[in-house]
Write a structure and sequence with these properties.
The structure holds 2 protein chains of 2 kinds.
Chain A: H1 3-17, E1 21-25, E2 31-34, H2 38-42, H3 46-51, H4 65-76, E3 80-89, E4 95-106, E5 112-121, H5 123-143, H6 152-167, E6 171-177, E7 183-191, E8 196-198, E9 202-204, H7 209-216, E10 221-223, H8 236-243, E11 245-255, E12 258-268, H9 276-314, E13 318-323, E14 328-331, H10 333-339, H11 358-375, E15 377-385, E16 391-402, E17 408-417, H12 419-441, E18 444-450, E19 457-460, H13 463-468, H14 472-476, H15 482-485, H16 488-503, E20 508-515, E21 521-532, E22 538-547, H17 549-611, H18 618-649, E23 655-658, H19 659-669, H20 671-677, E24 680-684, E25 689-692, H21 694-712, E26 719-727, E27 730-737, H22 747-750, H23 769-779, E28 783-788, E29 794-801
Parallel strand pairs in A: 24-26
Antiparallel strand pairs in A: 1-2, 1-5, 3-4, 4-5, 6-7, 6-12, 7-8, 7-9, 10-11, 11-12, 13-14, 13-17, 15-16, 16-17, 18-19, 18-22, 20-21, 21-22, 23-25, 26-27, 27-29, 28-29
Helix pairs in contact in A: 5-6, 5-9, 6-9, 17-18, 18-23, 19-21, 21-23
Chain B: E1 7-10, H1 14-26, E2 33-36, H2 39-50, E3 58-61, H3 70-78, E4 88-92, H4 97-106, E5 110-113, H5 118-132
Parallel strand pairs in B: 1-2, 1-3, 3-4, 4-5
The chains are: A alpha+beta, B alpha/beta.
Chain lengths: ~800, ~140
């Protein structure tokens, strides 16, 4: 053995006993020798290693192979280096971190002798380093307030991002299980390559039973070969393969001993062996997620507690708690007000038992609390007393709150003052009693019929007996059925009326006959309406039935009398119309047939005077003149009668008639007469007009003018003043003369037909003129009157609608 | 010849007929006067005209007539193509508006209410004579 060889052997021996993995390579890179330590690190024997085609590069983790190649090349170039970290992957997939030192060993002539490569196992020390880093990350998360993040999402994002970066994993997600544990839903998924967060994916238990079964174990699932692992194998086609996931590390998120979710690390690429530090870190992060969940729930609970507290503080009900020892621990404001404690006063000096009057205290001690302790809750009526000792009824609930071991934690009670309710109930009862009294004393029947086939009677008041002769309870029991009491002839009509009203949501009112128990028949009226529930369904009908027999009988009698009366009136009217017709015909005949002889009398008198003047003595001629004068008066009388009767039967028109025009017409008719008498006629009528029949108005005016001229003819000169003025919606027309006047005691007579106040020889006339005036004016809706005094002239007034 | 054509007086009242004839005489009217004492007789006159008798110069017609009403007589004359132009003066006691309106609607040429006074009647006759100018006056002194 030469020196070199000896040196080599020594080196060999030394190298065999050192813990570093040492390899020696020929200048061409061929491995010449490997020490036994390789087995500790790479889990392969030295001889196995030397047979590997690409030793040692093939032993490095795929990610570090290029690095290792470079190191070897550097060594062949004579280079050297120290403590380069590098990952070695064992056949079982696990990683070992090594620190690589290398050196190209040169001969004195500078030629390369070989390359030495030494790898020291750093895994354990690195693990310590990792753990320190992980610890840092975890404390950063808690310091950074992952638990006080405003929302669960923010907390989860923080966790997934930290996990992905620290563990160098492609995707990290947090999935939460639903209440039925039938599925998990992704609440956050961080993709390391894109830096993006997503959420919403769902994985169903039904489809992946093995995976869920593993989750149910509440243990970490470390699957270095996820696609082969029995727990995760079933995810391959749908999930792992499409996303290129090779390894998974699922840390359960556990709350209350139950897995509620999972923090899922998904290694993109080939298998990855998870080292304990990584697993522990993942578990810690999962715990962090659980705490975040808890924090959110706690906040919600806190909010709920605050809300409940504010309700307790605001409720008018009495709410209090006391400890297992019976000492009061809480009393809400309503309770404090009741017992006279201010809001900040301690409950220490107050004995809860003072709240109860003696009998209620007894009940509390013997019944309420024992029942609550036994069954959890007691409720019933009790009584409280205020600080002045006034007792009042309450409705109370006592609850015993126990811990998990069934030990009493505290008692709580809620009590409601029943006084307002009792008062309301009393008032209601009073009202019911009042109504019942009222209804039972009404002269009629109140009823309620349920909407069911046949409208069964739900209620009918005591008045039933008086109205129908059947006791109310019999009718309620349909003995007899109420509809059968209704008179057969009225049934169809009445039921139709009621049905129509109910269908139209309106009240009904009808009248019909009923058959009483004694067989008699009376008329009743029935008024009622449908009762509808909140949904609008007809549930019943209620109403009132009253006796109107006397009224209806009287009405029927009245109708009969009316009909009879109408017939009689019609008969009379017919007779009257006939009589009128006869009268008209009579008046007509009178005028014509009375006049014919007059014409004879006048004609022959005239012929006598003319043709036999010489043979007649003076007296004979005077007789003939008298005959002719009588004839003339008779003629006038007939004309006036005719005018009067025509005015009575003629139909008058109504038009706006200017008074000035009427006066002009009448005055022109009397122009000669006025001139002859030397009368002074003045008119003051302006623009006034009236609603009248022009001819009738002219006739009335003419007659008044004639009348005035007649009675004023002896005055010198005769004066007639015609004046008109408006009075509201009426027009007054007056005709004043300065004639002899008349005594007002005759006032009412002067407008009557054939009434005369003066002797015919003094003031000739028929006694019809003023009757015509009154008839005309009254038929036009007006009135007439006169004012006078003997020797003082007279004023006649006509009043007409304007 | 025109001068001798008659006047038809339709009048049922003999006194009125007599007084009318006397009034004509006093006015020296010489036309012959035919008298119909009721509506039927008046209708018979119209039948005669249709048969060729010369129609009158003027008809004085009362309305209230026995048997056939004066308005029917008026209607017949005024609805006849040939006799329509004969003046018909309604001379009646009726002062009813309806009678006057009906008479004018049927074509009456004048409507005169018979005056009771004989003097007034004389004036009516004078007016007829003047207005229609169809009546022949006898010479005052032949």
């Amino acid at each position: 053995m030469d020196a070199g060889n000896a040196e080599a052997i020594d080196f060999h021996l030394v190298a065999e006993h050192i813990r570093d993995w040492v390899s020696w390579f020929a200048p061409d890179g061929r491995p010449l020798w490997v020490n036994a330590a390789v087995e500790d690190i790479a889990a392969r024997t030295a001889s196995q290693c030397l047979e590997l085609p690409d030793y040692p590069v093939c032993l490095a983790d795929s990610r570090d192979r290029e690095l290792l190649k470079k190191i070897l090349e550097d060594g062949r170039a004579g280079g050297a280096g120290n403590d380069q970290p590098l990952r070695i992957r064992r056949p079982d997939g696990s990683l070992r971190w090594v620190a690589v030192s290398w050196q190209g060993v040169l001969e004195t002539n500078g030629a390369l002798l070989g390359i030495s490569l030494s790898m020291r196992d750093q895994t354990d020390s690195l693990r310590g380093r990792h753990q320190a880093r992980y610890q840092d990350a975890l404390s950063r998360l808690s310091r950074g307030g992952v638990l006080s993040q405003p929302s669960l999402e923010d907390a989860f994002q923080d966790i997934t991002e930290t996990a992905a970066r620290m563990l160098d994993v492609g995707r990290v997600g947090i999935w939460l299980m639903d209440a039925e544990r039938a599925r998990i839903e992704c609440r956050d998924m961080f993709d390391l390559a894109s830096g993006a967060h997503t959420a919403g994916a769902v994985v169903e238990r039904e489809r992946y039973p093995a995976y869920f079964a593993a989750l149910d174990q509440d243990r970490l699932i470390a699957a270095p070969h996820a696609r082969e692992d029995p727990r995760t194998r079933e995810l391959t086609d749908d999930y792992l393969a499409p996303l290129g996931i090779g390894a998974m590390l699922d840390a359960p998120i556990v709350r209350g001993g139950k897995t509620v979710g999972v923090l899922c690390h998904e290694q993109i690429g080939p298998a990855r062996h998870w080292i304990p530090a990584e697993m522990s870190f993942a578990s810690s992060l999962a715990d962090m997620a659980a705490m975040a969940l808890e924090a959110v729930e706690r906040r919600e609970l806190e909010n709920l507690r605050r809300r409940l507290a504010s309700i307790l503080e605001a409720t008018p009900d009495f709410v209090g708690t006391s400890g297992a020892d019976g000492k009061p621990t809480y009393l809400n404001p309503a309770g404090r007000a009741l017992v006279g404690l201010s809001s900040d006063e301690s409950l220490g000096g107050w004995d809860v038992r003072h709240l109860y009057p003696p009998w209620a205290r007894e009940q509390r001690d013997r019944v309420a609390i024992p029942t609550a302790l036994r069954e959890g809750v007691w409720s019933g009526e009790s009584a409280f007393q205020d600080r002045f000792g006034n007792a009042f009824p309450v409705s109370q609930v006592v609850i015993a709150h126990k811990d998990e071991q069934g030990r009493l934690n505290y008692l709580s009670t809620v009590a409601r003052d029943l006084r307002p309710w009792k008062e309301a109930r009393e008032a209601l009862r009073e009202r019911e009693r009042f109504l019942a009294t009222l209804v039972d004393n009404l002269p009629g029947v109140a009823y309620r019929r349920r909407n069911a086939p046949g409208w069964p009677m739900e209620y009918i008041s005591e008045g039933c007996l008086e109205l129908t002769g059947y006791p109310a309870e019999d009718v309620m029991a349909a003995r007899p059925y109420f509809n059968d009491i209704v008179h057969p002839d009225d049934r169809e009509r009445v039921f139709a009326e009621v049905d129509a009203a109910l269908a139209e949501y309106r009240a009904f009112k009808t009248e019909y006959r009923i058959l009483r128990a004694d067989g008699s028949e009376i008329w009743v009226w029935s008024k009622g309406r449908g009762i509808y529930n909140e949904a609008g369904w007809l549930v019943a009908r209620e109403g009132f039935i009253g006796d109107i027999n006397d009224r209806v009988r009287a009405q029927i009698e009245l109708e009969r009398l009316n009909t009879e009366l109408e017939a009689r009136v019609a008969e009379r009217t017919e007779k009257l119309a006939q009589a009128n017709q006869h009268l008209e015909a009579f008046a007509y005949s009178v005028s014509h047939d009375l006049k014919a002889p007059l014409r004879g009398i006048d004609g022959y008198s005239r012929l006598l005077l003319e043709d036999y003047r010489e043979t007649l003595p003076e007296e004979g001629r005077r007789f003939l003149d008298n005959i002719r004068g009588s004839t003339e008066r008779m003629n006038q009388l007939i004309d006036d009668l005719l005018a009067y009767s025509r005015l009575e039967r003629r139909e008058l028109s109504t038009a706006r008639v200017p008074l000035a025009a009427i006066l002009a017409r009448v005055l022109s008719e009397r122009e000669i007469e006025i001139k002859f008498l030397g009368a002074v006629v003045t008119t003051r009528v302006g623009e006034l007009s009236v609603l009248a029949d022009a001819d009738a108005l002219a006739q009335a005016t003419r007659n008044l003018l004639d009348n005035a001229l007649k009675f004023a003819r002896d005055a010198s000169p005769p004066r007639v003043d015609i004046h008109a003025w408006a009075e509201g919606d009426r027009v007054m027309l007056s005709v004043t003369d300065n004639g002899c006047g008349f005594d007002m005691k005759y006032h009412d007579r002067i407008f009557d037909i054939f009434q005369r106040l003066h002797r015919a020889e003094d003031y000739p006339g028929t006694g019809i003129g003023l009757a015509i005036v009154r008839k005309a004016i009254e038929r036009m809706g007006g009135g007439v009157r006169a004012e006078s005094a003997p020797g003082r002239g007279a004023t006649f007034y006509m009043e007409l609608p304007a | 010849m025109n001068s001798m054509r008659p006047i038809l007086l339709v009048e049922d009242n003999p006194v009125d007929v007599d007084l009318t004839l006397r009034a004509f005489a006093k006015r020296h009217l010489v036309n012959p006067v035919q008298v119909a004492r009721d509506g039927e007789e008046a209708m018979a006159r119209v039948d005669a005209w249709e048969a060729g008798e010369p129609p009158p110069l003027l008809v004085l017609l009362d309305l209230k007539l026995p048997r056939v009403d004066g308005l029917d007589v008026l209607r017949r004359i005024k609805s006849h193509a040939r006799f329509r132009s004969i003046p018909v003066v309604v001379l009646t006691t009726s002062t009813e508006d309806t009678d006057m309106r009906s008479a004018y609607q049927l074509g009456a040429n004048s409507y005169i209410v018979k005056p009771v006074s004989f003097d007034n009647f004389m004036e009516v006759v004078a007016q007829i004579e003047l207005y229609w100018g169809v009546l022949n006056l006898a010479l005052e002194n032949p």
